[in-house]
Structure prediction request, 973 residues.
Amino acid sequence: MTGALSRLSTSGRFLVAPVCLTVAILAFGAAVPEFPTIANAGNVLAQMWVLTLLAVGQMFALLTRGFDISVGAVAALSSTVAALAANHWGLPALPLGALAGLVCGGLNGLMIGSLGIQPIVATLGMFVGARGLALLITDGGQVVPLSQSGIAAALAYNSLAGIPPIAWMALAVVVAAAWVLNRSVLGRRIVMLGSNPDAAWLVGIHPWRVHLAAYGLCGLFAGFAGLLITIRAGSGLPTEGTGMELQAIAAAVIGGTALTGGVGRVSGVVVGAAFIQVLFTGLNLSGISPFLAGVAVGVVIIGSGLLEYALRRFLSPLEQNRRMA
Amino acid sequence: MTMAAAGSPSIRFAYRPPASAAIAFVAFVFFAILVPRFPTLGNLENVIRVASILCIAACGQAVVLILGGIEFSFGSSVALASVVTVLTLPDTGTLGAFAVGAGVVVLVGAVNGTLIARFELPSFLVTLGTLMIGAGLASTIAGGLPIDAPASDAFSWLARGRIAGIPVPIALAVLSVAVLYFLLAHTRLGRFWYLAGANVNAARLAGINVRFVVFAGYVVAGAFCAVTALILTSRVASGQPNLAPNLPFETIAACAIGGIPLAGGQGRASQVVYGVLIIAMMNNAVVLLNFPVAYQRLMIAAVIIGSVLLQKLAGKGWQTGARSGGSS
Amino acid sequence: MNKRTKSLLGGIGLLAVVATSSASAADKTIGFSMPDLAASFWVSVTYGVEDQAKQAGVDVIKVNAGGDANASQQIAQIQDLIQKKVDAIIVGATNGDAVKAVVEQAIAAGIPVVGVSSPPNTDKLVAIVSADHYDMGKLQAECLAKAMGGKGNVAMMAGPSGQTWSDLRANGFRDTLAKVAPDITIIAESRLADNRNAALTTAEDWIQRFPELSGVYSATDDMAAGIITALKSADKLDAVKVSASNLSPTAQQLLKDGELACTSIQQIVAQGRAAVDQAIAAAEGGEVKKEVVTPALLVTAENLDTVDLSSVVAPSDYRP
Prediction:
């Protein structure tokens, strides 16, 4: 009985996001007339992917007991590189932007894994450096318009079975992330490193390689997010992305990823990101003062934490080894 | 440094400065040689004044970091405090207004502490939530625009005045560091902070009232931040909904560069001081060097990474207790 | 404190009303997408929009991207306005190129779009109400050069880089200064400082670094306030002249006290009003003026009394 209960309680953290999402949909559905429509569902499903990609990448970093506050700046750099590449070599060169993200993430991983720098400091340095680089290559932060913006607009706004083509592409990438996490050796190693670094080391895993891979994936997904931004805006945006890193971490944490490492699911993160997007969209549609909307988001974030507390208490009367911070 | 270094007799006689002290010294010499007008008395006073304002808030952040948490709400609670202070100024006079402003920040700390200690919510989410709530409230109350305070010497004393010749912010920073040192090294509460940060379950099993210890930590952090809020409000002589949005990042970076790990359980007051000095000197040097704009950020990134890298390379054996390659 | 509490409660009350009632009874709804409500510039534009809409009996839904650089956020918000099927959208773009595609989506969905101040970069807009940021920089250059006597050293606190409004103002300043005062050199520029405290600190550093400093250009009046505070503490207010843009209550006081040489402004409240007029006209199928241009003005202590503040800045008790 206790076994089943404790299994349920561990998965209690993965119930938070779905419950929050459901409550949000019901609440906005009742309060805002334009919300509960098929068209709006498509709207939210189209908009959520930048945040989702950032949050999935962040999950990989969180799994190793770290985090990455440079994802916003890396996304902006990737967006810029993608636009510059596309203008130079044609639209198929866009994915070079994601490559830029991978390189930045890899550098983070090297600093953290090989040089032993704390994640906060390493990713802070990347946060400032990536932004500086983006400004440097764009003559002080000028936007880089795509020369083939018509195709980009079609990818971003045309409807393919309800949601735009880029949303489907983002979904495919996220599914690939789930595969990496659940079915590949790398994914298993990342989880192991986060949940018990000593055991991982004893088993023969090289921590520096796993850090390199985990942060590399985080940067790669930030790169994908940058690609998405470029396609939606029809331009590379070197100054975009401030604040996105905290939103991404929040989405991942609400989606059940543990800040202490070792626990996380891609599906949870996707639902967490969807919840935050629903929150933003609902607040936009309701037309309340933008300042009050900020208050509302803060309250909801704390509320989701309280929900997790309630689920934890309800589902597990047993004492859990939880860090209190 | 480990907890042993905090209070054990054998270490007290052999004071070992943190690794960041060497970096701060190297940075100072480096900038003094290469940056024009850096080592002038006037400039150094500015640097130390700005460092002092950051230092007081960083003391609060250090307490939270030692507890294994993180405090983001500093960014908006100082703004909220400044708005509230300027708005209550006509009704309560300068001293009263400052008291109200300080009270607001301590209240935010108490709210954070309650949510984190009582409900065991992750500090990241809670302080992010209060950051957004505070920002929204400050903007709503002020209408999105700064509110100027009437110019008065009393109001600007905190930022511009002097006590026995020393600028007030610097004096307050020295006091704050002394208070932090005393709390960490010589009180039971400080010792419990280390324990709760290092292993909360062991602390609980040892009979410590962890809930109160954590709650007290956030309130104390709020108190430190309150002082910073008042100095900043006095400095800009206005209520600003957007007073210091980078304050949480700067304080976290200062503590981390000073050598305090985010995992909790470790940290010394001196590490805060050196971390803050490095950051303040760096910001000052960037402006004085007058590089083209695009290179300024790259320089900041280089200094951040470089200072930590130097600590690692030069002081492998310097810092005791740094385990598992720094993944935190 | 009472007024603020009242407005806060009022805001919560409004939220309750919106939450419990269905779509309000007014016949037209206009969406207004702006880049950064935290800037005094946009607060004044918003006042113009809201006041004019109230007089016309029309609802306004405001969405705020939360920062000049938050183009992605603005794109999503405009999509939400399309979703809401508003009758017209007024857009102050974070970046004209970045929002072009989504604005054209709105137009394709039958929603006319009016650009205000920083318009989306598409020729399908039904009207453009423009602010000339370049002109604002130009006026600052002319005024500052005169205040400095045609020679000296100037530092520029130019605001965030990569944003149209700050870049245009800075370019206007630089180009004009080179023409009217070739003896004045620009010795420093900061694009990192973007709030009053940061401007204060940077100005303090500049005072130490450049004893020969005799003039400062600031992109906004809030930054100028920080610069002037720094100059006052260093006793340099007589030696260094400061010019700014925007005319919030802060700037008005600085001008009256003689601490600010001049500030260049746009009649932004008037622009907000004009944008609403054109939006309503477009929504009702009436006649629309394709371009509304209001020139930039230079305000000094001398002509402050003659400026019609109601077309320039929101009243001090306005709460968006």
Remarks:
- Chain C has two domains: 27-132+267-294, 133-265.
- Chain C touches chain A through 48 residues (CB under 8 Å).
- Chain C has ten helices and twelve strands.
